[in-house]
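User: structure tokens for this one?
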Amino acid sequence: MWGTWFGGNSAQRRKDAPKKAILDLRQQLDMLQKRERHLENQMANEDKKARDNVSSNKTAARAALKRKKQHEHSLEQTNGQISMLEQQIYSIESANINQETLAAMKNAGAAMKTIHGKMTMEDVDLTMEQLREQHELTQEIGNAITSMPITEPIDEDELESELNQMEQEKVDETILRGGPVPVGDSIGKMPAVDAGPVRNSRKPAQEDDEEEELRKLQAEMAM
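Assistant:
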């Protein structure tokens, strides 16, 4: 019981140590950043005092510049401390992430070991062979089913003859009604008239434009 209490508390403290360290560092960083802003304001005030008294009171101007220099020195130290704290926070965060990543990888490795505990390559090869056999059997069954015709094949010649008969009946019905015979029918086609090329008495629009341009050019040359 005592071991569980102390051991559990110790493990928890080790786990929370990085978080506590980062929290303390961030609090200190916040304080230093506030000091940085305060020193910058002080420097601006002393600079203004020096400029205001540079002509009328050089003693006051010199004292203001001296205080400004002191603030500058303090600001440099504060900036250095801020940089150091930021680097420490970054290092602790990186180390903590590495630790958590490693722990997750260990857990994943243990899980994979448990999954593969009773699995051997012989089992894998046997399973794959059985799958291949069943796949081949499925293909053979499918080929056998699709290769056996369910109905008798259709006679294409008989189909064409029936189609021609239907077409002839339609032509006969059209003739009896006194209507025009379809052009595409096999019966009732009119003999083709050998007509020569149709000549257009009117000239194309392009030729008219060319003649018009020619007349304009001749008129300009006559002038």
